[in-house]
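Moderator note: this is an archived Q&A kept for reference. The question asked for a predicted structure of one protein chain; the sequence and the answer are reproduced below.
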Amino acid sequence: MRSIRASEVAAAAGELIRTVAEKLPADVLDCIETRLRAETDQNARFTLSQIIRNAEIAREYGLPLCQDTGCSVFFVKLGTAVKIEGGDIYTAIGEGVSRAHIDGFLRKSIVRDPLDRTTNTGDNTPPVIWLEMVEGDQIELVYAPKGGGSENMSAFAMLEPFDGPKGVENFVINSVENAGGNPCPPIVVGVGIGGTSEKCAFLAKKALLRDIGTRNENKFYADMEIRLLEKINATGIGPMGLGGDSTALDVFIEVHPCHIASLPVAVNINCHCARHGKVIL
């Protein structure tokens, strides 16, 4: 059994938050640069170049990529051979979130009651934590903040089983078209298929953790990801919704077995920042 102090977890979570807020993931930046070289619309080319310049300034001066530093979402793998000393994993991560947003002067965006908008928690807590127990003596923290503009464009539907692949693809395309420029394209689109309503929504969000350019291991879904990416970029929504060829950077699909009478589908969208990062303790 390996012991890890709660204070270590808090410190690691806080440092991860600050890093993710300021540094655009390399795979995302590379894809935006590739889209810039291929973009045919002049206004879209200018917008993409400004997105790249924004990332450079944030990295150089240690500033957030976006003023909306998002709801703090963590995907945690906790080893069964790990003991947290001096606290628990939830409290430790919450402490890290609080420190990062107060000491790092990041925007605090969480209201205490969803229907009473008058009271901000003051430190962006509580975070949303998805915990998975795994074998081993390590803790893996994956941080993926979600800004309001992209999270508000989430969509979910219980399709009929006979709607099949075409129905799923139509739902995803319609969801992106309805979102338009609101989630600050070029976007990354996460799609969850199967499970139950809550599992499906979880899969859509977890899908956004994948690196740009990776494909689902199942060729059927890998081909669907490619088709959807092509169709979404053919909508002409373009960077920031101003038109062009670059509406999406990638589409990721995750699936789970489901009931014979159900076909749940969820869409979760990341803005062009597509912020995420990982640390292992």
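Archived answer notes: The first helix runs from residue 6 to 22.
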